[in-house]
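Could you join me in thinking about how sequence relates to backbone shape in a protein? To get us started, please write out a protein record for me. Would you write everything just below, so we can both look at the same thing?
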Amino acid sequence: MDLRETFATNLRRLRNARGWSQDELALEAEISRSYLSQLEKGVYYVSIKVIGRLADKLDVEPDEFLKRMAKKGRAK
């Protein structure tokens, strides 16, 4: 998984954990819902400025968006 996909997955996870729709987060972060949707799909690269806005509104540190989830080990 590349960093853009990691960002997209974490953005979606953090938004859902907050219980917000894309419309709500986009409004709070002052970006379009369409752009947010594309970020969550991993279509666009995100700027540092937008990462800062999203982190602020989701009440997380910016590095939360780039944390990779631990891979599940296979049972033997």
